Amino acid sequence: MNYESNHNPSSQGHTERNKKIQELGRQLVNDxxxxxxxxxxxxxxxxxxxRLLHSLESTINWxxxxxxxxxxxxxxxxVYLNDRLLKLRVSSLGNVHFLLEQFETRDIGGIYIENAINxxxxxxxxxxxxxxxxxRSSANHFIQTESAAAVHHRINAxxxxxxxxxxxxxxxxxxxxxxxxxxxxxxxxxLYDPNxxxxxxxxxxxxxQEFIDLIVKHDLDFLGYTNELEIHKYDFYHVCNTTIMAIxxxxxxxxxRLDLLExxxxxxxxxxxxxxxxxxxxxxxxxxxxxxxxxxxMIPVYSSRRILAGPFSWNRLRYAVxxxxxxTPPVMKSGQHPNGKDESWLFSRIISICAxxxxxxxxxxxxxxxxxxEALDAMKHQLRGFYDPHLLEVFxxxxxxxxxxxxxxxxxxxx
Amino acid sequence: MDVSQQIDLAQRVLxxxxxxxxxxxxxxxxxxxxxNFFRKTHExxxxxxHYFGDLTVVVKPFDLQLLxxxxxxxxxxxxxxxxxxxxxxxxxxxxxxxxxxKDLLAVSKLLTMxxxxxxxxxxxxLLWKYNIPHVSYLQLQMLESAEESGNDGLDENFxxxxxxxxxxxxxxxxxxxxxxTFDAGDxxxxxxxxGTHTKRTLEGQAAQVHHQLIQYxxxxxxxxxxxxxxxxxxxxxxxxxxxxxxxAIEQIQQYLFVLCERLFIAKDLKRLALLFEExxxxxxxxxxQHSYALLKQGFFDYFTAEGRIEHLFSSxxxxxxxxxxxxxYIHVFLSILGVEVQEHxxxxxxxxxxxxxxxxxxxxxxxSHHPSHLMHMLQHNYGHLKDFGVDLLIAGRKxxxxxxxxxxxxxxxxxxxxxxxxxxxxxxxxxxxRLNEMYERLFITSGPGFQRVVFEExxxxxxxxxxxxxxxxxSKEFAKMNWKEQADHYRLLGQSKQPEILEWxxxxxxxxxxxxxxSKVDHYKRLAIKGIQxxxxxxxxxxxxxxxxxxxxxREVIIELEDSLRSFVMKGMxx
Lengths: 415, 575
Prior knowledge:
Order of helices and strands of chain A: HHEEEHEHEHEHHEHHHHHHHHHEH
Oligomer: heterodimer
Radius of gyration of chain B: 41 Å
CATH architecture of the largest domain in chain A: Orthogonal Bundle
Radius of gyration of chain A: 30 Å
Largest sheet of chain A: 5 strands, antiparallel
Number of helices of chain A: 17
Number of domains of chain A: 2
Low-confidence stretches of chain B: 144-156
Structural class of chain A: alpha+beta
Structural class of chain B: mainly alpha
Strand content of chain B: 5-15%
Number of strands of chain B: 9
Mean pLDDT of chain B: 80
Number of strands of chain A: 8
Distance between the termini of chain B: 104 Å
């Protein structure tokens, strides 16, 4: 299988055409709905139908010209155009329901057009939907109809086939983990890109839910990937790996599924503050100045501020509280609440350990990569006091077994 | 049983479930007995399981279908159960054999949750979180990135991804995981893999985690959850501390609003005030008054919208009283909202206890640029309410500019003794120079009850009132009183603890018989002894002792002096 095949220019053209068809389909649904609804109020020779007929004519002829036919059918609030399911806005679903009801009342499940048509032919056909038709629509060679029962049967058969296929479809746990890791990577890439709109957190929640199921049900020992050559991608991998590691560590600590989900979401968001740090500081080879160190120390503050941007949510507040104490040096007392004790939350402590471990296991512009055992040793001795010693003990016990292997494309293609 | 019976039974199951769910929603305020609403549904579903096995319905946008026929439909709207299932990617939904009443209850709570309440998580996500036994579903969902990529042909994408993943799967016999979701981005997974350099796995076994740590974690997490409000406010404090621009505060504005409101409801006024003080401090440091005025306006708009501030202060009504410390915190809070907030606060004043009301009135007076206007408005709107006027006067004691002399003079005619008393006291404190001209009004033309009130209040006031008191004790009106009433007035004089009054008592005890008739001198001496006794300090006791030694008094006076000295000792006074 050529992985690139889906991204060639012809595929791009295909996508564009799909997009256009969806757009025309929505236009068609809207125009038909307005036309049929208006027939209840006005006679068909009323001027208000002229614009609608021209719009319908143009839409249909464009579809026929580009696709060679227009097959429009539907059942149960789902509408297809040339065998593509039309994606409709929630607000228009009521209109679709009305339209299909009108079709079904006249035992029409769909319409089929092979050649270009004109407004007169269209007007004749749509006469069918008038409350009291002035004349019976004669057999129309230009617009053919199919029965509601046939369409209903076909759509249900298609759905059944698809569902049966999906139910039977299985993959091994590693492949699925790869797909989920890749989805998480894509999500994080978008989340940590200041030029892109923030993705919906519900998406990462779904990815993490599946990951947790894999870990809980299948004892998954997958810990992610690294890419040490493309420096600009470091943060994406780092956040992914920290998240996966935190969930795995949480599982080891016998956290519940819901706690694992919260831990995972907090890990996904914990590093957002890096977006507020000038890139030259993050990739600087030489030792940092005191001023630059101060900026680095502010990352948890920036992260929590970014997490809180937007409408209120208790979940986000929780994530922000967790992020505010991730990797916070003990010396940073400034700005603390006069009334509060400086005690980090459990998930902050877990994420701090995971983030540091992942970082030490990766080559950075300013230091070499450490072996997992060396990294754990450094955390225990050189960074003494930074991390919860009890958690670090358990973490060491689990992660000293981490194996890091080079990815061989041929062998690892299927894991 | 044939197909039509199967469909009929499925329809009855789902309609009964919907009915039970609606009934349960009506009684959701009750904590118990909800499972009873689902008994009939449970019986029906067990019946279905008995004849047909698991009940699996196919989810269409506005229908649940079984064997191509609709078995449930609840309209075309965003709260439709099939619709909520469909948009979250659920394509089949199964009630499995062995389902319990509590499972049905849990499912129905989720299915009937309003669409509005599902802003943060869709139905599939909630089903995952609730992890309800004997309920399963097939979720086939294109994740968001599918829409972003412009691949709108949903079916095509599924097929393409099926094909793509199938090629991978065929190679591997370890197939054991069902796919739940699909993402158009999955097509790029292979390309992604080519860009990676190392992969990490866990090898080897770790020892079991110590049971003490395992036990500690749930308790710790619960505590953290309980502390969210405190920790959240500490975080906001920190963010305010480090905020370097107006934009930085605007970013967290919504959280500031909600948390401040929650802190108020939780009566954690100290934390609330700390946040506001930090906000105010930053405001002053940055110096850009205009920018921060907008932020303050944001606070005002939030707290005054939808009767929020009134609601908050109604919750204060439950407090028995407000301490000076709490008063300070509330003052800080209201100061940020600005003086305009007084209009909202005044609305809740009638519903508060006297103590709380007085405290709030004091805060309002201290915030107000024109306390007399505020006083006038409050008196006009609420003066007729029981105790309100008194609270108003008591709260206004510290604010001399709050009352005009005329306002107080009017209150002297009030039928309420409390009001009269407070008015006299305020006149004595705030307008002592007007007392002389008021003598007649206070002590001559008024009734005895009012005179007593005036006398008592003037005794409590400063030395400016002493001459007026002496004048009264020497007046005809005083002379007309009986011994008991006179003694009561002398006691009040003594309780005032003014040095001039003690001297005056001493002077009475030194009077010679020649000035008054002997019995009259003794009468006043005995009154003075009562006053000295009420004075009750070391100097007073010394004065009694001195007079006992002098032996210039009649037998009656000596007995009075001895009684008085005894009472000093009896009260255990140690000087």
